[in-house]
Description:
Layout lengths: L1 H13 L12 E6 L9 E2 L2 E2 H18 L3 E4 L9 H10 L4 E8 L10 E4 L7 H12 L22 H28 L12 E3 L3 H4 L5 E8 L3 H8 L1 H30 L1
Parallel strand pairs: 1-4, 1-5, 5-8, 6-7
Antiparallel strand pairs: 2-3, 6-8
The protein binds zinc ion (ZN).
Amino acid sequence: MIKVIVIGLSLLLASGAWSLPSAPLNRVVIDPGHGGSDNGAVYRDLKEKEITLQLARRLRQRLADRGWTAVLTRESDQFLSLSDRARLARDHQGDVLLSIHLNSSNDERAHGMEVYFENQLPPDEESAFLANRENDNYQGKSDLDWPLHPVPEAADLKGDTLSIVQDLQRSHRIYTSSVLATQLAESWQGQRRSTENTIRQAPFFVVSNVNMPSALIEVGFVTNSNEAQKIRSEHYQNSVVDGIVKALAQFKEKMDKRRSQSLK
Ligand SMILES: [Zn+2]
């Protein structure tokens, strides 16, 4: 019986009909990292929480100009727990979640963007460290025990069937998030990393606890003086945002194409 259910659900998922958005992808939830008592990375007078909000606002405006709906998890210098952010993303019924952060390092030479999506494989040590860093910056560690709610389509299912559906949905979400992360890296118009490893998987709480494709972007290093100076500038922030918009447009095109094929 279970085997039949698994095969049936696999076919449904493979067809794309189960977990792709029922409407064309057009609603983006933007999560500016940190806020309020949580400054995020701080270097001299630069605070991560301020830059992430500036970038999020610019991104929302650019997306609105193109007819997308974009919603921010926070509008001001306000503290939000990780579970608040994940819940808001789901409540806003986002088709995509982008969490925006800035990096820091003991090595002042470290620079460039990195993009993370939900991990599926055992994380390497550096990713685990980074995930702890972003996750630990928040108060209330009990948030980490907060369970992932079943997505609405799976709400009526129970027991084994529910867990099978959730596994399949997770696999599908990780796949679509990897496509999103790849587009973000390819369309990036800001400073690039000097190493190859721009795209990584890590257990960041927010991107791992939503039911939509999601990615966490570390826009650049506040601890690199050249990059910190650029990140403050309107010109550089616009370049970063333009790259993200381009990536989202390409991601939308791919997902809409796949969706229309599944409906044929
Ligand atoms: Zn951060």
